[in-house]
Design brief:
This protein has ten helices and 23 strands. It is α/β, with parallel strands linked by helices. A hairpin with a 3-residue loop joins strand 18 and strand 19.
């Protein structure tokens, strides 16, 4: 039987007629476990338009009474252990955002297809094998994330002109075998991620998606080996131009069947061209691989390598940390720094779950005063110069950020809880806050909130100290760090290619540097960093040989 004393948030929301309710983490999970589920009174809060229940492993099902919450616009049920969700979700006619990611779902209810206002659907990291037929009825859908499931293909009606607002489709790490040529009917498509699937072909019709800006087909064994190489190393524009050309080639050959002799001559010419291309491609491939190199420097080879001491107290606050030092990252050329910061933000939004799962921080090594300590401080004693701000205590900083988040929420009336709100909540109720402190006692990082203005990276930064922290798991930190370093390698390759192109064109606005500098600028050097306990015992060293385990065909790691 429900004990309302254990659920003060529900009573407060009901009394004050609030529109938002969030249950998250161990405290909420403990109450769900002892109650055998969510408190039934929750389903009487008919004014709610935002409900989040996340990071609660004891939550295995949602009661059908959720259909009573007729004003819900956002329903966030991520990182639980849901094995099913009720079909009556389809009765939540106002629902715009539905997040069921990181659960144990093997099937989605057909009712989801009745959500006419749905704009964002995230069902990533489940056990789904199929998507429900009729998804095209969700005509306002703009973002669909089905990554990390067991899906083998899209429903027959999916490639529909009714989904003319679908701009982002993330479907990586599945078993999808075919992308239909009807994909061109998804006219608004801007982002398409089908990496790590079982595709053998990419339809030429994809090039007819006029708004497409970002595609990812890495990790598929394509029958066209040149195309396979291109998807592992080239920009979206180049890939689309190539598959567009292939499509035109097939149409021309089919139309030219009347002149057999002319056809044979054309075929001979094409064969010669293909031979030349194969030879050129082989050379290109060597160059591509040379550009995507990460070289790992071992701690044993560098006696002065950074070490981070981890205090025992962090285990109750934010226990997991991995670090490394990166050299060779070119932040000086053009928009390189901006591109890197944008990539970091995207990782924060996607892989890090808007910082609720993990947080990345970057520092200029030249501005660090080693040794470093990862520990905790009381909120009133933790003083930090946050990025773009003056020094203040953690209490003051969070108060400022909360006010800013509230103001942002008022400005965007439809989005009632911002990403900022979500990660500020991670520290609610904590008696101690986590921080990394340098040898002079300065706080250089206050995860998951901010890192310090004092160690901020700039265009002139030559060595970066990277840290990833999490309350989830050590593997989470490693996965995020892997992804960050791979992204840095990609950005460096992109920068090097454009420098070379600019150099060959003789553009005056590109600073001329010695050739050796240009060549080495595409290689990242990653110096291992050890984290140790207060007695000096090793906790983790990153990277180790078990890291970078993903099969990234255009990345070479030299140990």
């Amino acid at each position: 039987m429900d004990d309302m004393e254990d659920w003060p948030e529900i009573e407060k929301v009901g009394t004050e007629k609030r529109r938002e309710l969030v249950f998250q983490g161990p405290s909420a999970d403990e109450r769900i476990s002892s109650n055998g589920g969510l408190c039934s009174a929750l389903y009487s809060l008919t004014l709610l338009n935002y409900l989040e229940v996340s990071q609660c492993p004891s939550l295995t099902e949602i009661h059908g009474d959720i259909q009573n919450l007729i004003n819900l616009q956002s329903l966030i049920l991520c990182r639980n252990k849901l094995s099913s969700v009720p079909d009556v979700l389809g009765k939540l006619k106002s629902l715009k955002v539905l997040d069921l990611s990181v659960n144990n779902l093997s099937v989605l209810p057909e009712g989801i297809t009745h959500l006419k206002e749905l704009k964002t659907l995230n069902v990533s990291c489940n056990k789904l094998e199929v998507l429900p037929e009729g998804l095209s009825q969700c005509t306002k859908l703009s973002t669909l994330n089905i990554s990390k499931n067991r899906i083998t293909g899209f429903p027959a009606d999916f490639y529909s002109e009714r989904l003319d607002l679908l701009s982002t489709l993330e479907a990586s790490d599945n078993s999808i075998q075919q992308l239909s040529g009807d994909v061109h009917k998804l006219a608004a498509l801007k982002v398409l991620d089908l990496s790590n699937n079982k595709l053998s072909e990419i339809p030429s019709e994809l090039s007819d998606c006029a708004k497409l800006k970002e595609i990812n087909f890495k990790g598929n064994k394509l029958s066209d080996k040149r195309l396979e190489k291109m998807v592992n190393g080239c920009q979206t524009k180049s890939i689309l131009e190539y598959i567009r050309g292939k499509g035109k080639g097939r149409r021309t050959e089919g139309e030219d069947g009347g002149d057999a002799d002319g056809g044979r001559k054309a075929d001979k010419g094409k064969r010669q061209q293909r031979k030349k291309k194969v030879a050129a491609d082989g050379q290109d491939e060597v160059e591509e691989l040379n550009k995507m190199v990460v070289r790992v420097l071992h701690v044993s080879d560098n006696p002065t390598a950074l070490t981070v001491t981890v205090s025992a107290e962090v285990k109750d606050v934010r226990p997991y940390l991995v670090c490394c030092v990166v050299r060779g990252m070119n932040l000086k050329s053009g928009n390189s720094l901006k591109r890197f910061l944008v990539a970091q933000t995207k990782l924060h939004d996607d892989l890090c779950g808007k910082r609720t799962i993990a947080t990345i921080a970057t520092h200029d090594v030249q501005l660090l005063k080693a040794p470093l300590t990862y520990g905790v401080k009381p909120p009133t004693e933790l003083k930090v110069v946050a990025l773009g701000r003056k020094e203040m205590s953690a209490v003051e900083l969070i108060r400022h950020l909360q006010l800013e988040a509230d103001e942002l929420r008022k400005q965007k009336k439809r989005q009632n809880v911002t990403g900022l709100h979500k990660y500020l909540q991670l520290l609610q109720g904590k008696a101690m806050y986590p921080c990394i402190v340098d040898a002079e006692g300065h706080v250089i990082s206050f995860p998951p909130i901010t890192n310090s203005e004092k160690t901020k990276i700039k265009k002139t930064t030559k060595e970066l100290f990277l840290e990833v922290t999490s309350a989830a798991s050590l593997q989470t930190c490693k996965d995020v760090m892997d992804a960050l370093i791979v992204k840095m390698a990609e950005l460096n390759k992109f920068t090097a290619e454009h420098r070379e192109e600019a150099g060959s064109d003789g553009e005056a606005d590109v600073p001329q540097e010695p050739p050796a500098s240009i060549e080495s600028s595409s290689e990242l050097i990653v110096q291992q960093v050890r984290t140790v306990d207060q007695d000096g015992n090793l906790k983790v060293v990153y990277p180790s040989k078990t890291d970078f385990s993903n099969d990234i065909s255009n990345l070479t790691v030299i140990w």
